[in-house]
Amino acid sequence: MLSAILVILTLAFSDLAKLRGIQFKPLNKTMFFIFVGNLLLLLVLGAKHVESPFIEIGQIATLVYFSYFAVIIPMSTIFENSIAEFYTQIKGKLSKLYTSAH
Questions:
Q1: Are 40 and 101 contacting, i.e. CB atoms less than 8 angstroms apart?
Q2: DSSP structural state of residue 49
Protein backbone atom coordinates (compact mmCIF):
# COMPACT_ATOMS: atom_id res chain seq x y z
CA MET A 1 0.00 0.00 0.00
CA LEU A 2 2.86 2.34 0.77
CA SER A 3 4.44 1.69 -2.62
CA ALA A 4 1.18 2.68 -4.35
CA ILE A 5 1.48 6.10 -2.76
CA LEU A 6 5.25 6.45 -3.09
CA VAL A 7 5.17 5.65 -6.80
CA ILE A 8 3.30 8.94 -7.30
CA LEU A 9 6.46 10.73 -6.12
CA THR A 10 8.31 9.34 -9.15
CA LEU A 11 6.24 11.56 -11.44
CA ALA A 12 8.68 14.40 -10.87
CA PHE A 13 11.41 12.28 -12.43
CA SER A 14 9.49 10.19 -14.96
CA ASP A 15 7.71 13.04 -16.77
CA LEU A 16 10.25 13.99 -19.41
CA ALA A 17 7.94 16.26 -21.40
CA LYS A 18 9.14 19.59 -22.68
CA LEU A 19 5.63 20.99 -22.51
CA ARG A 20 3.88 21.12 -19.17
CA GLY A 21 0.15 20.63 -19.08
CA ILE A 22 -1.95 17.91 -20.57
CA GLN A 23 -4.10 20.04 -22.88
CA PHE A 24 -1.60 19.85 -25.77
CA LYS A 25 -0.71 16.18 -25.36
CA PRO A 26 -3.45 13.90 -26.71
CA LEU A 27 -1.58 10.65 -26.02
CA ASN A 28 -0.99 11.55 -22.38
CA LYS A 29 -4.60 12.66 -22.07
CA THR A 30 -5.77 9.26 -23.31
CA MET A 31 -3.39 7.45 -20.98
CA PHE A 32 -4.64 9.55 -18.07
CA PHE A 33 -8.24 8.51 -18.69
CA ILE A 34 -7.16 4.88 -18.92
CA PHE A 35 -5.39 5.37 -15.59
CA VAL A 36 -8.54 6.84 -14.02
CA GLY A 37 -10.59 3.89 -15.30
CA ASN A 38 -8.02 1.48 -13.93
CA LEU A 39 -8.09 3.26 -10.58
CA LEU A 40 -11.87 2.97 -10.44
CA LEU A 41 -11.58 -0.72 -11.31
CA LEU A 42 -9.12 -1.19 -8.44
CA LEU A 43 -11.52 0.59 -6.09
CA VAL A 44 -14.36 -1.73 -7.08
CA LEU A 45 -12.17 -4.82 -6.86
CA GLY A 46 -11.05 -3.82 -3.36
CA ALA A 47 -14.64 -4.16 -2.18
CA LYS A 48 -15.13 -7.63 -3.71
CA HIS A 49 -14.63 -10.98 -2.01
CA VAL A 50 -11.29 -12.71 -2.44
CA GLU A 51 -12.38 -15.11 -5.16
CA SER A 52 -10.86 -16.43 -8.33
CA PRO A 53 -11.83 -13.94 -11.03
CA PHE A 54 -11.35 -10.89 -8.82
CA ILE A 55 -7.83 -11.91 -7.76
CA GLU A 56 -6.53 -12.21 -11.33
CA ILE A 57 -8.22 -9.02 -12.50
CA GLY A 58 -6.81 -7.20 -9.47
CA GLN A 59 -3.29 -8.43 -10.21
CA ILE A 60 -3.50 -7.24 -13.82
CA ALA A 61 -4.97 -3.89 -12.76
CA THR A 62 -2.20 -3.47 -10.17
CA LEU A 63 0.41 -4.17 -12.84
CA VAL A 64 -1.19 -1.53 -15.08
CA TYR A 65 -1.26 0.94 -12.15
CA PHE A 66 2.46 0.64 -11.46
CA SER A 67 3.44 0.46 -15.13
CA TYR A 68 1.61 3.74 -15.71
CA PHE A 69 4.17 5.57 -13.62
CA ALA A 70 7.23 3.50 -14.52
CA VAL A 71 6.69 2.80 -18.24
CA ILE A 72 3.69 4.50 -19.83
CA ILE A 73 4.36 8.11 -18.77
CA PRO A 74 8.07 8.14 -19.79
CA MET A 75 7.42 6.35 -23.10
CA SER A 76 4.49 8.55 -24.09
CA THR A 77 6.38 11.75 -23.25
CA ILE A 78 9.41 10.61 -25.26
CA PHE A 79 7.12 9.79 -28.18
CA GLU A 80 5.33 13.13 -28.00
CA ASN A 81 8.64 15.01 -27.65
CA SER A 82 9.96 13.35 -30.80
CA ILE A 83 6.77 14.20 -32.69
CA ALA A 84 7.02 17.82 -31.53
CA GLU A 85 10.66 18.06 -32.62
CA PHE A 86 9.82 16.53 -36.01
CA TYR A 87 6.98 19.01 -36.44
CA THR A 88 9.19 22.01 -35.63
CA GLN A 89 11.89 20.79 -38.03
CA ILE A 90 9.39 20.35 -40.84
CA LYS A 91 7.79 23.70 -40.06
CA GLY A 92 11.20 25.40 -40.17
CA LYS A 93 12.10 23.83 -43.50
CA LEU A 94 8.75 24.75 -45.01
CA SER A 95 9.04 28.34 -43.83
CA LYS A 96 12.53 28.58 -45.40
CA LEU A 97 11.19 27.23 -48.66
CA TYR A 98 8.29 29.65 -48.57
CA THR A 99 10.46 32.70 -47.88
CA SER A 100 13.01 31.73 -50.54
CA ALA A 101 10.24 31.30 -53.13
CA HIS A 102 8.92 34.82 -52.56
A1: no
A2: -
